[in-house]
Design goal:
Layout: E1 2-5, H1 14-21, H2 27-48, E2 61-66, E3 71-76, H3 83-91, H4 98-104, E4 128-136, E5 145-149, E6 154-159, E7 166-173, H5 183-193, E8 201-210, E9 219-226, H6 243-253, E10 263-269, E11 275-281, E12 295-299, E13 302-305, E14 320-324, H7 334-339, H8 341-364, H9 366-386, H10 388-394, E15 399-401, E16 407-409, H11 410-417, E17 428-433, H12 440-448, E18 453-455, H13 461-471, E19 475-479, H14 485-488, H15 501-514, E20 521-526, E21 535-538, H16 541-552, E22 565-570, H17 574-581, H18 585-602, H19 608-621
Parallel strand pairs: 2-8, 12-14, 17-18, 17-19, 20-22
Antiparallel strand pairs: 1-6, 2-3, 3-7, 4-5, 4-7, 5-6, 8-9, 10-11, 11-14, 12-13, 15-16, 21-22
The structure holds adenosine-5'-diphosphate and magnesium ion.
C-alpha cells in the first residue's frame, strides 16, 4: 500500500473546491462522466490506430445510484489507469493528460477528447465525503489499482481486484448532499449535461411502450435507460440532412415548444476557431423576455449553459438552437468569459453567419423571404438597434411594409416616395401608421395627396425609427396622426385664410372654451382646404416617441404622464364660418362641442360619459 500527500500548493484545496469553485454543485457529474467519455474515446483511438490488442467491446458508461450504501458509481470501459498514471494524473492536481494525449495521437479522430474543464475529477468532493477509484489499464499485464481519499490531502493506494478494463469511480455521498442519491435527480442531471455525449450512458431502468415482435398490441416493457443521443445533428454533415431532420432535432431540443421554427442555420467553422451548431429562427412577435435562454452552449457535446448573456450578442438570444465550441474557456467565471477574445470572435462570427444566411434567403427567394418577414422583423430590428455591424449587413435585406401590404427594401422605398414626399426644405418625409384601423382617417388624408404610408406596428418600431433616421440623409419619419398632412409634408404653396385675424382669434376662443380638458389640448387654428376635416386631433411626433420609448423600457417616466394633443381647427371649413356666425350662444357651444367630439371619436378617445353626451347631443341636433 502507498500513502502520500496530494500535490497541492495551498494547504488544503478541498474547502475551496467545495465552497467556491462552482456555485452549482451539480456539475461534478458532468466532470466525472466527461472523464469517462474521454477515457473511452481515447481507447477508441488506440483501437482504430491498432495501438492495442484490446477489443472495444461494450463501451456503455454506467451511472448507478446505490441508495442503501449511499454511493454513486460512474463506470467506464475506457483506457483505465496504471498505478503510475493515477499518481501522475490524480495525485498531482491539475495535471491533465488530455493535452499529452492529443499531442501524441494527432489526427482528426483524437479531436473529441474533452479534458480541461475545471478542477475536473476533484469536483467529486463537492458532494462526496470519500472517493474511490478502482481502475485497470488497457495495457497488457496491467494490475488493477484502488485509490481512496476522504477529502483531506491524504490518499491511499493499493492493488485491487478488477476483472475488466476501465475505471469505476465510487462517491460516498456526503450527508449534506444526499439529494444526489435520488435516481430521478441523477437522471435529470445526466439529461441536462450529457444528453448529446458521444458515448452511450446508461442509468437505471425505464418503462416504455413497445410492440413485441409478432404481437398486435403494444406492451409496457422495462429497459435500461439510455440517456443520450450520441450523434447529435449539429455534428453531422449538412449536405446529408433534410429539413425534416432539422425539425425533428428541434423537437428533441424543445419538447415543450409547439410552434415550429421558421428556418435554421447550420454553423460549421474550423478556422480561425472551432465551432459547430444549429440556430433556429422562431417566430418573434413580442414578449422579448420570454424567448430568451433558449440557445444552449456546448463544449464537445457537453452541455455548459443556456445563460448566454455577454457570450453571444443580445439579439441572438432570441434564437433557439445549439452552439458547440471546444474553444470557449469553460472553467472560468462568467465575467472572464465575457471579456475573452475568443468569445468575442465567436460572437462576431455568429452574427456574420446569421446575416449572411438572411441575405442569401432574400436574394434566392424574395417571395419566401417576404412571407417570413413579419415574423423575423423584431429579431432583425433588435439586431440593427444593438449592433452596428449587423445593421450594416442587414440594410441590404431590411424590408419596409406599407399599409397596402407591399414590401420594399430601404433603397426601393426611397426611390418610390422621392418624387412626391419631399417637403419644401428638401427633406424626404416617411409617413407611417401604427394601426390601420385607428388611424384610418389620417392614412386616407395622406393617400388623397398621393402619398404612401408605411405600416409600423411592431414593438420595436419606434426604437427602430429613432435609430434609422439619423443614418439616412435628409429624411424624417412622421406618424400620420402627428400633424395635419399639409404640415407633415409642407410644400411652398400655402392655403390663404378666409378669415380675418380677429375672426381666427374668436374661433380659437370658442374652441378653447369648449374643449373638455384644457391642459391636455392646445387649440390651433389653421387654414386648410375646404375639403379637409373641420377639426382634427394630432399628437406631436417626438412627444409620442418619447412616450413609446418609456413604455418599452418599462418606466413610468416624465413623458408618460404627460398627455398632450393638438386640436387643429380648419378655419377655411364652412362649419368654422357657421360657428362664427351663429347668434344663439347655446347653439354655438353645442356645434363646437359636436365638432370636438367627432375629432375625439376618430382618435378613439371619446368614452364613458362624454360619449353618452355626444350621442344625446347628436340626436338633439338632428
Ligand atoms: P481533465 O479531464 O481536464 O484532464 P480531470 O481532473 O477531470 O482533468 O482528470 C485528470 C486526469 O485523470 C485525466 O486527464 C485522466 O488522465 C485521468 N482520469 C480521470 N478520470 C479518468 C477515467 N475515468 N479513466 C481514465 N483516466 C481518468
Ligand atoms: Mg475532466
Amino acid at each position: 500500500m502507498q500513502t502520500g500527500n496530494i500535490n497541492v500548493k495551498t494547504e488544503n484545496i478541498f474547502p475551496v473546491i467545495k465552497k467556491f469553485l462552482y456555485s452549482d454543485h451539480d456539475i461534478f457529474l458532468r466532470e466525472l462522466v466527461s472523464n469517462a467519455v474521454d477515457a473511452t474515446q481515447k481507447l477508441k483511438v488506440l483501437v482504430r490506430q491498432s495501438k492495442t490488442k484490446s477489443e472495444l467491446g461494450d463501451i456503455t458508461i454506467d451511472v448507478k445510484v446505490d441508495k442503501e450504501n449511499k454511493t454513486l458509481h460512474v463506470i467506464d470501459h475506457g483506457i483505465g489507469m496504471t498505478a503510475e498514471e493515477v499518481d501522475k494524473y490524480i495525485n498531482q492536481i491539475a495535471f491533465s493528460s488530455a493535452e499529452e494525449f492529443l499531442e501524441k495521437y494527432k489526427g482528426t479522430d483524437a479531436a473529441n477528447i474533452i479534458g480541461h474543464f475545471g478542477l475536473g475529477f476533484y469536483s467529486a468532493f463537492m458532494v462526496a465525503s470519500n472517493v474511490e477509484i478502482i481502475t485497470k489499464s488497457y495495457q497488457e499485464g496491467a494490475k488493477a489499482v484502488k485509490w481512496t481519499c476522504d477529502g483531506s490531502t491524504e490518499y491511499q493506494m493499493t492493488e485491487a481486484e478488477k476483472e475488466d478494463r476501465g475505471t469505476e469511480i465510487i462517491l460516498h455521498i456526503a450527508e449534506d448532499a444526499e439529494e444526489f442519491l435520488d435516481e430521478y435527480k441523477i437522471v435529470g442531471l445526466l439529461k441536462k449535461y450529457c444528453r448529446f455525449l458521444p458515448v452511450p450512458i446508461r442509468c437505471g431502468m425505464e418503462k416504455t411502450w413497445e410492440k413485441p415482435e409478432g404481437e398486435e398490441k403494444e406492451k409496457e416493457v422495462e429497459k435500461p435507460r439510455i440517456i443520450n443521443n450520441t450523434n447529435p445533428l449539429w455534428k453531422q454533415s449538412p449536405s446529408e440532412l433534410t429539413d425534416e431532420d432539422y425539425l425533428k432535432f428541434y423537437r428533441e431540443l424543445y419538447p415543450a415548444t409547439f410552434e415550429e421554427p421558421l428556418f435554421h442555420i447550420h454553423l460549421n467553422v474550423d478556422y480561425p476557431f472551432n465551432l459547430t451548431g444549429i440556430l433556429y429562427f422562431p417566430k418573434v412577435k413580442s414578449h422579448l423576455e420570454l424567448q430568451k435562454n433558449k440557445v444552449q452552449l456546448y463544449c464537445n457535446q457537453v452541455f455548459i449553459t443556456d445563460q448566454l448573456e455577454g457570450i453571444i450578442p443580445e439579439f441572438m438570444m432570441l434564437l433557439h438552437g445549439v452552439i458547440d465550441s471546444p474553444d470557449i474557456p469553460l472553467n472560468v467565471s462568467r465575467s472572464y468569459l465575457q471579456s475573452d477574445a475568443n468569445v468575442k470572435k465567436i460572437s462576431t462570427h455568429i452574427t456574420k453567419k446569421v446575416a449572411d444566411k438572411l441575405e442569401e434567403m432574400f436574394k434566392n427567394n424574395r417571395e419566401e423571404f417576404e412571407k417570413k418577414w413579419d415574423d423575423i422583423k423584431v429579431f432583425i430590428q433588435y439586431g440593427c438597434i444593438t449592433d452596428e455591424k449587423f445593421y450594416e449587413r442587414a440594410s441590404k435585406f431590411m424590408l419596409l411594409k406599407n399599409t397596402e401590404g407591399k414590401y420594399f427594401t430601404l433603397d426601393e422605398y426611397k426611390a418610390k416616395i422621392e418624387p412626391l414626399q419631399k417637403d419644401k426644405n428638401d427633406v424626404l418625409v416617411y409617413l407611417y401608421a401604427a394601426n390601420t384601423d385607428e388611424q384610418h382617417l389620417y392614412i386616407q388624408a395622406a393617400k388623397e395627396k398621393g402619398y404612401d404610408v408605411l405600416l409600423m406596428d411592431g414593438v420595436l418600431d419606434t426604437h427602430f425609427v429613432n435609430m434609422l433616421e439619423p443614418k439616412m440623409e435628409k429624411c424624417r419619419f412622421a406618424r400620420v396622426d402627428s400633424d395635419i398632412i399639409d404640415k407633415l409634408i409642407e410644400k411652398e404653396e400655402t392655403q390663404i385664410s378666409k378669415l380675418s385675424d380677429k375672426e381666427r382669434d374668436s374661433l380659437k376662443e370658442i374652441f378653447e372654451k369648449n374643449v373638455p380638458a384644457k391642459e391636455k389640448y392646445t387649440v390651433l387654428v389653421e387654414s386648410l382646404s375646404e375639403s379637409d376635416l373641420p377639426v382634427m386631433i394630432t399628437q406631436n411626433e417626438f412627444m409620442r416617441r418619447f412616450k413609446d420609448m418609456e413604455k418599452l423600457s418599462g418606466q413610468q417616466g416624465y413623458y408618460g404622464n404627460f398627455e398632450n394633443y393638438n386640436l387643429v381647427v380648419n378655419g377655411n371649413h364652412p362649419l368654422a364660418s357657421r360657428i362664427l356666425n351663429e347668434e344663439d350662444a347655446e347653439k354655438k357651444d353645442a356645434l363646437t362641442q359636436q365638432l370636438i367630439d367627432l375629432a375625439l371619436l376618430s382618435q378613439n378617445i371619446l368614452t364613458g360619459e362624454k360619449l353618452s353626451q355626444f350621442v344625446k347631443r347628436s340626436i338633439d341636433l338632428l
